[in-house]
Write a structure and sequence with these properties.
Layout lengths: L3 H5 L13 E2 L6 E2 L8 E4 L5 H11 L1 H6 L8 H6 L1 H11 L1 E3 L2 E3 L2 H15 L4
Antiparallel strand pairs: 1-2, 3-5, 4-5
Helix pairs in contact: 2-6, 5-6
């Protein structure tokens, strides 16, 4: 699966013949493709860290309650702030071997931080 940085840079990991389980640090369950614990929020095969962050913004109650729309964030802003966004993902979530683990509340915290970075007046 590669690291989160490899995913951001578009590097692909070598294909693996058999999935090696990845243990969740929160509940101890082994995770393999399509058999995830309740703490898996994203997998690298779903997209890169920026796509994960867009997903977090789209599904967050913070975004919904505030009447915000992810489509209002221009592509240039995502590109310019990509490094900072990856740092925020790594701060809020446990990222390991292609899996992003965390609590539901972490999605809201990530969404809040991104919206405040995009528009400090929020």
């Amino acid at each position: 699966m590669g690291s989160i940085i490899d995913q951001l840079e578009g590097k692909e990991a070598a294909p693996v013949a058999q999935a090696i389980p990845v243990r969740c640090r929160m509940c101890g369950r082994d995770n393999v493709p399509m058999q995830y614990c309740r703490h898996v929020r994203w997998t690298f095969d779903q997209g890169d860290p920026l796509e994960f962050t867009r997903f977090a913004l789209e599904t967050s109650p913070y975004t919904d309650r505030s009447g915000l729309d992810v489509m209002h964030i221009p592509p240039a802003w995502w590109h310019e702030n990509g490094g900072w966004i990856v740092e925020q993902v790594l701060l809020r979530f446990d990222v390991e071997d292609g899996y992003v683990f965390g609590d539901m509340g972490n999605l809201d915290l990530l969404a809040r931080d991104v919206w405040k970075a995009f528009d400090p007046g929020l």
